[in-house]
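Title: Prediction job returns without error message
Component: structure pipeline
Severity: low
Priority: P3
Assignee: unassigned

Description:
Job completed but the reporter wants confirmation the result is attached to the right record. Sequence as submitted:
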Amino acid sequence: MTQAEILDIEQCWEMLERHELARLGYLLDGRVHVMPINYGTHEGELVFATAPDSKLAGVLTGHDLVIEIDEVVDEVGRSVIVRGRGEVVAEEDQIELTQVRVRPWVDTTGDLPERDIFVRVDPIEVTGRAYALRRPWKSMLR
């Protein structure tokens, strides 16, 4: 592998389908916010569940959203970025999405609100890169 390689669209989607944790970036009140999410893929879109909080407000602004995932395997790091628009999924369409691997990891049995609002992100752009890693700390003495 050279220093950096561009992943093609199929490689990006394969990586997106293998993972379920990501970071969601959105613009709200003139500030950029980045939050962890778990997501699933469904018919060429990304889906996540949220509560009525700032993530939902960020989706409803109509600005682009960014979802980013990473992985490190051996000496190769990969990153995929999805830019797109989000929308709340209508209640009657949510039954089909319960089959998608979107299961909130956050324990909501306490004071946290239930994450039962599904958001669909329609990708405008999907890009990815793979990088050769040096990881010098592996050879350092402890």
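Comment from assignee: result matches the submitted record. The chain has three helices and seven strands.
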